[in-house]
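Field reference: sequence -> structure
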Amino acid sequence: MKGFLRVLIYFLGLFLIALGINLSLLSGLGVSPVAAFTSSLSRAAGVRLGAVTALCYSAFVLLEMVILRKQFRPKQLLQIPFCFVFGAFVDWIGRVFADMAMDVYLLRLLILLLGIAALAAGAVIYVAMDIVPNPPEGLILAICKKSGASFGKIKIATDCAYVIAGILISLLFCHDIGEVREGTVLSALLTGKLISFFTGKWQDPLRKIYQKKGKSQKIT
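Structure field:
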């Protein structure tokens, strides 16, 4: 029963991240760095965002395998089926929001901030369940393990790479800069701080759900 509850809460975390992505898109003020990349690919290819996200995240898992080689644990392959569940969440929530429109800037800003909060809360919840990381974080952890660099430094580098790639794809295929706006900067500035705040409040109660001893992995 505890194992089932653990998986259920893990999926709740993924759902909140998918909700955060779609709230950011709904605001029209910009999305997180990773979503800036996947949303640009989605627009350029004319493919649903959830499908593109699932495929990109699966590619991240393959990159983990290449980077880690013998250090790659078979358990990490569980990230791939979870990628497609996450992609389904992204598409389902996107359909719910499809006909909504926001014209007032302050309202759009509020929706954006709610999206950032949902992203941070979701990250804390799924990390606390300690099943497998979301592939973007899993890729960063793999690079850290192989290079010895800190998580923070690699995250900044990968976030910059996602944003630059997203802008280039949008410019080449859509002739604009895509979903990169002030919200992308706010996401980069606020998400880590909110993750730290939620971790302090929720990590211990969440860990007690399945009575895991020791410290859960944190994303900072």
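Note: The two ends are 31 Å apart (CA to CA).
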